[in-house]
Prior knowledge:
By secondary structure, the protein is α+β, with helices and mostly antiparallel strands. The protein has one domain. Helix content is 22%, strand content 22%. The protein is globular.
Amino acid sequence: MRCLIFVLCMIGLLLAGCSGSISDGQPIAPDQASSADPFGAPPLPSEFNCGPEERYKFDTTISSERDFVDFLEGNSISDWVVLDSFKDEDGSISWERVLSEVKKDRIGGRTVYSLVYVPYDCDEYTVKMTDDGHVSVYGCCGK
C-alpha cells in the first residue's frame, strides 16, 4: 500500500511540473533565487524520494501564528500541503492542534512561520511562510 501511495505521489509531481503544483500563489522557479532569498538559502533540489522544494509568492501579510493557520485553512498552496497528521477521528483537521505546532523564527529581517506535518502516509514535510507572503514546501515521500 505504501508503494502505491508513493507512486501516486510521484505521478502527481510529474503531472504538476517542475515548479511543484498548481496553486493560487505565483510559483517561483529555483533559478529566480537571489542573495536576498526570503528563507535564507536557495530552494532545495530534488533528491531520491524528496523535493524539489516548492516556492510560491502570495499577495498577503501574515502577522501571527493564527494568521498563518488561517491562511493554511483558507488557501490551496500545493498538492503536498495535506495535513493528514492533524486529522481527528472523524477525518476533519484539528486547526487548534495545527496552531499549537506552528513555530516562529526570524530570517534576514523577516518573520517565518513553519509547520511540520505528514501528508499521504509519507515522511515529514515542512511548510514555511514569511510575513510578506513567501511560501516554501519541502519533504520526502517513500523510503
